[in-house]
Write a structure and sequence with these properties.
Length: 221
């Protein structure tokens, strides 16, 4: 009796079958064909994680702003290893975060290109620098506001092109307005902050001294 397998399948060597299986998995991950919703989600997260790790390594090696911050953190006694910067899942509202115990999280799937990652990572490294140098009390709204002002100003978050992408356009003092708006938004999310008015008040109280403090940069990046 003739075999029910197709000639191509029946004549495959073990290495050819392995190659075909890898191709099938790659095709499925690209198209979602043949995968359950859970498998599709896992494939997407896997790709996001690999991309995030690849870009992170490139930033730590080649980005002028990131390597500058890493150098000054080391000079300040707080060296940063790749393991201190993690790629992980976050909610849709953020692209990164800093944890006072010395960890930075880059939100895989929420970082859209290398420039976005550079700004995000530099922002979080400014927080890490402030923690290292000034022992920030993150539940103190004035402390939090100061670090947010500095991170938003120095990290590249408020560059003109980024603001245009967000739908904000200001003819004068665009940078300052962006820094203030984003600092208030961050402080508002502090569990010790009762309302937006308190966040605005904290930002206003420290604005002059913290906006003018560009350490470790000589000027706004």
């Amino acid at each position: 009796m003739a075999s029910s397998a197709s000639p191509a399948q029946g004549s495959q060597t073990p290495s050819e079958k392995g190659l075909y299986e890898r191709w099938r998995r790659t095709f499925s991950s690209m198209t979602g064909a043949g995968l359950t919703p859970e498998e599709q989600e896992a494939e997407v997260e896997g790709r996001n994680h690999r991309t995030c790790e690849q870009w992170k390594a490139q930033m730590m090696e080649y980005s002028p702003a990131v390597t500058f911050m890493l150098k000054h953190l080391e000079l300040s006694g707080c060296p940063v290893k790749p393991s201190n910067i993690e790629c992980g899942r976050c909610d849709w509202t953020r692209s990164g975060g800093f944890m006072p115990e010395g960890k930075i999280v880059l939100c895989q799937g929420r970082i859209f290109n290398k420039s976005h990652m550079e700004h995000t990572l530099t922002h979080e490294l400014v927080h890490m620098y402030d923690q290292c140098k000034f022992k920030v009390d993150w539940l103190n709204l004035r402390h939090h506001a100061c670090s947010e002002i500095r991170a938003n100003s120095l990290g590249g978050d408020c560059k003109w092109a980024r603001e245009i992408q967000r739908g904000f356009l200001s003819i004068s003092k665009q940078h300052q307005e962006c820094v203030r708006r984003r600092a208030v938004l961050s402080v508002k999310g502090n569990p010790a902050c009762p309302d937006e008015a308190a966040a605005e008040r904290a930002v206003n109280e420290v604005w002059e001294s913290c906006f003018s403090d560009t350490r470790p940069f000589d000027e706004i990046y």
